[in-house]
Amino acid sequence: MEEERKIDEIEVAKRLSRKYPAPAWSFLTRVRRGTGFSTVIRTADAIAMSLFPSRGFEIQGFEIKVSKNDLKKELSQPEKAEEIQQFCHRWWIVVPDKDIITLSEIPKNWGVIIAQKNGNKVLKDAPLLNPKMIDYPFLAAIFRNQNENYVHKDDFWDKVKEEKVKWEEHGNYELKEMRERIKRLDEFEEISGFNIRSWGDEHKDIAKVVRLVLDMKGDIGWKFNDLHRYASNIVEALKGIEREVKVISKDL
User: Fold this and answer.
1) Which of 83, 97, 112, 226 could form a disulfide with 123 if both were Cys (CB 3.0 to 4.6 A apart)?
2) Are 146 and 241 in the same domain?
3) Looking at the structure, do residues 22 and 72 belong to the same domain, yes or no?
């Protein structure tokens, strides 16, 4: 049995994003606490914000862990999450497998999501928190993240059209090649009198005969070349004998 591909953070984030689809949500990955680089800045693996007023403008934060060791490190210093959690209405730990996690070790104000291949399951609901207003450093980090991952819809559709042209050109080439092959097949059937597209395995026998003839053609060619060389040698030998006979005749 083929070994199952190891699940990484990118794959888990991809699965999680399906729980927070546009246009109801904006889902961003790897969001930093700020935009500066002079100090170590905390990064959330993902954040999501509800965009529909009817559902409330709720911000949710996520830490993704793909192994027990990763989770153990996170839980050993839960206060680190506070840097971004303070701006979120809910905070989640996201894992690909429930065997990675022990619910009794999870802080009370954190939720747990199992991001499975066939859907996301809430293992422990995240309680509603009382978040602070977003400050400018965090807001700047969100804007930077959005800019780095943003593709204008016009550029997107231009790329789609470009790829469509490439596929059409490729498809036309493949179609031309296929028509040429069908043409040659029709010619083969017409000359041979054999319908290769009929039911049965007769075409395999025909292919073997063709292969045998081609191999024989090669052997005959080599043998013909050998015979030609032998004949040339005989002609040269006869000419030599004729010259010697003339010399002998003069002496007599």
Assistant:
1) 112
2) no
3) yes
Question: Measured at the alpha carbon of residue 134, what is the angle toward residues 132 and 139, in degrees to the nearest 5?
Answer: 165
Question: In whole angstroms, what is the distance from residue 19 CA to residue 128 CA?
Answer: 18
Query: Does residue 79 lie within any of the structural domains?
Result: yes
DSSP 101-142: --GGGS-TT-EEEEEETTEEEEEEPPPP--PPPPPHHHHHHH
For residue 144, CA distances in Å to 51, 147, 184, 231 come to 19, 5, 59, 87
User: Among the residues of the chain, which ranges form H helices?
Assistant: 9-17, 68-76, 82-85, 136-149, 153-192, 202-251
* Burial class of residue 131 in the structure, from the number of CB atoms within 10 Å of its CB (0-12 exposed, 13-18 middle, 19+ buried): middle
Q: Give the HSE-up count for residue 189: Cα atoms under 13 Å, Cβ half-sphere.
A: 12
Which residues lie closer than 8 Å to 49 by C-beta, 6 or more apart? 25, 26, 57, 58, 59, 60
Number of domains in the chain: 3
Q: State pLDDT tens for residues 81-123.
A: 898 999 999 999 999 998 889 999 999 999 999 999 888 999 9
Check whether residue 211 and residue 108 sit in a common domain.
no
Domain that holds residue 169: 151-198
Q: Whole-model pTM above 0.90?
A: no
Q: Tokens representing 173? A: 């080439």
